[in-house]
């Protein structure tokens, strides 16, 4: 019977406890003339700390006017749980991060506020035209780009030297190198395996190098049944079929762990990897090269990156827009710190890249700056159905024994259907 | 038999509803109302961002020709047909075994079987991804030792679903075994003693006494496991995200994809309504089948 | 006979060891340096406590406390409510019994992701968002416990109740004084189940709570996993192990009550 006594005492304490918890003061909107803004983010670690700092600084400088409440979430929860649930209940954050994959859906639903009039004098011209174009919808600028993440081929110098492999420059060389470097312990080439926007992101360069694309110029028709698509799919798939790219990974495909722990000889990853490799895997020598091109192809890489956006349904669009402009469109120091100290990426602002010239030429960064930067194409902002169709085609070729042409044809139909909706 | 007057009957009904009241209220507010709302949403085109547009039964019509959806339903059935009997037989088997082992070790043994249940699904998925790793994984190294060829497991369209079943079985075996064991312990010992005199021991005693007397628990485990097998989500999300090449895309995952990745909330709700009906019919059939005799 | 039992015991322990092998890996890896996590060497020389130190630097202890409050409250209240309902459905006669039972069971059949948005709306409108109430109350109501109690009470010896009625106890009195205390054999496993399920609950706390100080352990764990450019699996596994300790404690402390489940011999 003792257990019952314990239970009842425990439960009384706890009921008291949650009574206290229930009396919640929900604090949104205005209080004593101070506007409170919700700012949601998906960054972690140092990047999260950077935004926390920014918010603190901004709150201090605008003490009696604006108070920003910053919250960061795990990335997959952020996009697929927190934001939909919040927007469905009309309580979306005032300021939030938006990925290229979500951009179109949000733009179509009029969730994103037009930022055009909030750019400080002359600031918009400082942004690379392509980066502004990537966030323009119906002549409205619906998000603020703050980084360009480029992709390159990272490799373990020692492993390549030991195997007598030259740094691959063409598709055939990459394939041969991956074959030679694959052992029971080491994967020749690490590529993403699971279906996600990231899978497509890494694959697009192989398509673009041949002049292929998912959609036509104005984004109204699918061009996915082209021979370029089939070729890029088959080439990509061959790494998995021949066992040179592992079918499952211990670390995320974007994670430094694959190269760092020595379980991979080569991997196609983005600019963000450089500081991590320098900091945590300084003992191993890594090299970097542009993504190899096919016979007669031209170099290409993605310029990815999240954007900052303002909720169009917010009661305080003005204040929110002013805040994001303050973050990345005004003073050069903040975007420079973000792109060079906190992480490594390119700022979409010409003056910022200019300012950070010394850093952009440091170590492996030089390869990005001199050999890769010019071939960058902004990451497409296709809706999730198209992303899924492309991803499914890749998966079919990688694991389903389907030919590139057949998989492309299937995806082509799905894309056409998605476009006609 | 006790005589039941009108008053007694009324009293009994009132007490019953009094006992049921908290749950009737809670389930109505926190489950039933949201369910009805989900049905309401299923009649709309809604992306969670802009206002809902009423479209009647369009979502249901669209579903009829959605090949991917029906494939996911099929996959879910395969999962259920393998997983439910496996878990049922496995947990019953070990419950009986534990009941007849040296009793002073039962506690330790039960805890061993139960431990996987304590690990969060995400973490158990991470552990198993390591064990299943095609290159360095424990299982493949073991296979290597035995001279067996290395397998792709989660990276193979043929094996991934089964690999996931093993994980879910691993997690839930101990708990269901414990429920069975608790019920076995409730069976009065003199039943067995009486049977012993008639010469029924071992298997015979199991079939004649244990199994029939476990019927209510068996029904519970079967129905609940069947319902649960239709809702397995976390582990698949972490281990394969429905891949490779959709080979582990079960219905709930597909609903999630439509709802929260594509933001087709209306359509996802319609899918959920249909999935609900499927589970409902199945569970009802199970309950009818097993309780018929009473 | 004795020999058979020994063989059986050895067999069960062999199976048990196989089952806890992956957990052994979890424990072992949480003591290893980040670069060694996924390596299969039995080198015990490089074990470290650094991972646990790193975990303790996060707000995990506060989160463990929150989870404790939520899980214990849900479990205690749920046991009482579910036992009451299960008893009513198994032993009492009242109009609409079949319907009520069917309706309750049907509430188990909706995938949580589908009712997530409306459930959030309901809970928010009740003023429970960002509070313990919001974390606790919606999680109490679950037909699983009702169903199991109903099945359990179906085979409960009738003679006990009959005797109580003769003594002049009311139905409610019989239940609370006589039946409920004898329900321990089912309450204990269910307690383990409810506590664990709520301890491991992730999606609901993630949605309903925004407040840092009310963060539960699984959300804190997910924040440690992160999704950044470098996943420190050793730290994640250490955090996972640490966060599973309360569940282990519940398992072990309940063992005692499980073992001496009452044998109602003599009653037919």
From TrEMBL, chain A:
Q: Which named protein is this?
A: Sugar ABC transporter substrate-binding protein
**Keywords in UniProt for this one?**
Signal, Transport
Gene Ontology MF term list: maltose binding
Q: Which InterPro entries match?
A: SBP
Give GO terms for biological process: maltodextrin transmembrane transport; maltose transport
Which residue positions does the secretion signal occupy? Answer: 1-20
Q: Which PANTHER family match?
A: MALTOSE-BINDING PERIPLASMIC PROTEIN, MALTOSE_MALTODEXTRIN-BINDING PERIPLASMIC PROTEIN
Q: Which GO terms describe its cellular component?
A: ATP-binding cassette (ABC) transporter complex, substrate-binding subunit-containing
One family from Pfam that matches here is: SBP_bac_1
Family as reported in the entry's similarity comment:
Belongs to the bacterial solute-binding protein 1 family.
TrEMBL record, chain C:
Membrane topology per the entry is: Multi-pass membrane protein
Q: Which GO biological-process labels does this protein carry?
A: transmembrane transport
Q: What is its main location?
A: membrane
Note the PROSITE patterns from the entry: ABC_TM1
KW Cell inner membrane (keyword) present? no
Q: Which InterPro entries match?
A: MetI-like, MetI-like_sf
* Localisation: Cell membrane
Where are the coiled-coil regions? none
**Gene3D superfamilies attached here?**
MetI-like (1.10.3720.10)
Membrane-traversing stretches: 7-31, 63-87, 99-120, 132-153, 174-195, 232-254
Q: Does the keyword Iron-sulfur apply?
A: no
UniProt domain ABC transmembrane type-1: residue ranges: 64-254
Q: Which GO terms describe its cellular component?
A: plasma membrane
Q: Which CDD domains match?
A: TM_PBP2
Name the UniProt key words of this record, in alphabetical order: Cell membrane, Membrane, Transmembrane, Transmembrane helix, Transport
Family indicated by similarity: Belongs to the binding-protein-dependent transport system permease family.
**PANTHER family given in the database record:** ABC TRANSPORTER PERMEASE PROTEIN MG189-RELATED-RELATED, SN-GLYCEROL-3-PHOSPHATE TRANSPORT SYSTEM PERMEASE PROTEIN UGPE
Can you say what this protein is called?
A: Carbohydrate ABC transporter permease
Organism from which the protein derives: Robertmurraya kyonggiensis
């Amino acid at each position: 019977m003792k257990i019952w006594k314990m239970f009842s005492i425990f439960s009384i304490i706890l009921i008291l406890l949650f009574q206290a918890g229930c009396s919640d003061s929900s604090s949104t909107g205005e209080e004593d003339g101070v506007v409170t803004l919700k700012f949601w983010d998906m960054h972690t670690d140092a990047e999260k700390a950077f935004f926390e700092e920014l918010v603190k600084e901004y709150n201090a400088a605008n003490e009696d006017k604006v108070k920003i409440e910053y919250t960061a979430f795990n990335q997959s929860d952020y996009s697929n749980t927190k934001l939909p649930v919040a927007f469905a209940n009309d309580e979306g954050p005032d300021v939030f991060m938006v990925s290229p994959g979500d951009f179109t859906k949000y733009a179509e639903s009029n969730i994103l506020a037009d930022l055009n009039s909030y750019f400080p004098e002359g600031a918009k011209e400082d942004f690379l035209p392509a980066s502004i174009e990537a966030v323009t919808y119906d002549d409205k600028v619906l998000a603020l780009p703050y980084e360009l993440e480029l992709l390159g081929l990272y490799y373990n110098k020692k492993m390549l030297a030991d195997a007598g492999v030259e740094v691959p420059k063409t598709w055939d060389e990459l394939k041969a190198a991956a074959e030679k470097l694959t052992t029971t312990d080491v994967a020749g080439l690490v590529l993403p395996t699971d279906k996600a926007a990231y899978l497509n992101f890494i694959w697009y360069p192989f398509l673009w190098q041949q002049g292929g694309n998912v959609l036509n110029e104005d984004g109204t028709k699918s061009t996915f049944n082209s021979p370029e698509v089939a070729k890029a799919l088959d080439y990509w798939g061959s790494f998995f079929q021949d066992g040179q790219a592992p079918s499952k990974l211990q670390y995320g495909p974007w994670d430094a762990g694959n190269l760092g722990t020595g379980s991979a000889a080569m991997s196609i990853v983005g600019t963000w990897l450089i500081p991590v490799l320098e900091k945590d895997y300084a003992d191993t020598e890594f090299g970097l090269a542009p993504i190899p091109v096919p016979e007669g192809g031209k170099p290409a890489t993605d310029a990815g990156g999240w954007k900052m956006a303002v909720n169009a349904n917010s009661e305080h669009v003005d204040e929110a827009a002013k805040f994001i402009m303050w973050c990345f469109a005004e003073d050069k120091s903040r975007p420079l710190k973000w792109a060079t100290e906190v992480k490594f990426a390119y700022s979409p602002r010409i003056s910022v890249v200019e300012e950070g010239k010394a850093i952009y030429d440091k170590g492996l960064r030089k390869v990005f700056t001199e050999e890769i930067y010019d071939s960058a194409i902004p990451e497409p902002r296709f809706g999730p159905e198209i992303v899924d169709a492309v991803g499914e085609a890749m998966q079919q070729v990688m694991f389903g024994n389907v030919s590139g042409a057949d998989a492309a044809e299937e995806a082509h139909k799905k894309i056409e259907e998605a476009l006609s909706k | 038999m006790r005589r039941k007057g009108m008053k007694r009957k009324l009293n009994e009904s009132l007490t019953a509803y009094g006992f049921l009241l908290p749950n009737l209220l809670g389930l109505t507010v926190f489950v039933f109302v949201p369910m009805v709302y989900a049905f309401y949403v299923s009649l709309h085109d809604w992306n969670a961002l802009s206002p809902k547009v009423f479209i009647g039964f369009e979502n249901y019509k669209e579903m009829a020709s959605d090949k991917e959806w029906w494939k996911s339903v099929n996959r879910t059935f395969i999962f259920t047909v393998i997983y439910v009997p496996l878990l049922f037989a496995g947990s019953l088997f070990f419950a009986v075994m534990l009941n007849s082992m040296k009793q002073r070790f039962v506690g330790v043994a039960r805890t061993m079987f139960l431990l996987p249940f304590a690990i969060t699904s995400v973490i158990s998925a991470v552990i198993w991804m390591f064990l299943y790793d095609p290159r360095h994984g424990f299982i493949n190294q073991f296979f290597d030792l035995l001279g067996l060829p290395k397998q792709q497991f989660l990276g193979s369209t043929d094996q991934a679903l089964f690999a996931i079943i093993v994980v879910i079985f691993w997690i839930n075996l101990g708990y269901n075994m414990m429920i069975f064991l608790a019920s076995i312990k409730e069976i009065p010992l003199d039943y067995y003693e009486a049977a012993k005199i008639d010469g029924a021991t071992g298997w015979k005693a199991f079939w004649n006494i244990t199994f029939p007397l476990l019927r209510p628990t068996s029904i519970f485990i079967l129905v609940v496991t069947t319902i649960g097998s239709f809702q397995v989500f976390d582990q698949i999300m972490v281990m394969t995200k429905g891949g490779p090449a959709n080979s582990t895309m079960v219905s709930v995952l597909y609903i999630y994809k439509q709802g929260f990745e594509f933001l087709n909330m209306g359509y996802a709700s319609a899918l959920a309504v249909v999935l609900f009906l499927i589970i409902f019919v199945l569970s009802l059939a199970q309950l009818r089948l097993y309780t018929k005799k009473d | 006979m004795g020999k058979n039992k020994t063989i059986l015991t050895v067999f069960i322990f062999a199976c048990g060891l196989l089952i806890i092998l992956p957990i052994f890996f979890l424990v072992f890896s949480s003591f290893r340096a980040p670069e060694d996590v996924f390596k299969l060497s039995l080198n015990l020389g490089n074990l470290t406590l650094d991972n646990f130190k790193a975990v303790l630097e996060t707000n995990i202890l506060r989160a463990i406390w929150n989870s404790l409050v939520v899980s214990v409250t849900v479990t205690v209240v749920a046991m009482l409510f579910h036992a009451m309902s299960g008893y009513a459905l198994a032993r009492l006669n009242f109009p609409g019994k079949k319907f009520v039972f069917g309706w309750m069971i049907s509430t188990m059949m909706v995938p949580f992701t589908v009712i997530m948005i409306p459930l959030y709306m309901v809970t928010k409108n009740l003023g429970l968002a960002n509070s313990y109430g919001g974390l606790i109350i919606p999680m109490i109501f679950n037909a699983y416990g009702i169903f199991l109690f109903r099945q359990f009470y179906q085979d409960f010896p009738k003679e006990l109740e009959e005797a109580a009625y003769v003594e002049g106890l009311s139905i409610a009195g019989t239940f609370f004084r006589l039946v409920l205390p004898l329900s321990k054999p089912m309450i204990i496993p269910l307690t383990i189940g409810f506590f664990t399920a709520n301890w491991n609950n992730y999606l609901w706390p993630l949605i309903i709570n925004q407040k840092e100080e009310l963060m539960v352990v699984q959300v804190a764990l997910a924040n440690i996993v992160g999704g950044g450019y470098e996943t420190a699996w050793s730290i994640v596994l250490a955090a996972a192990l640490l966060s599973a300790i309360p569940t282990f404690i519940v398992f072990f402390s309940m063992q005692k009550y499980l073992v001496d489940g009452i044998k109602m011999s003599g009653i037919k």
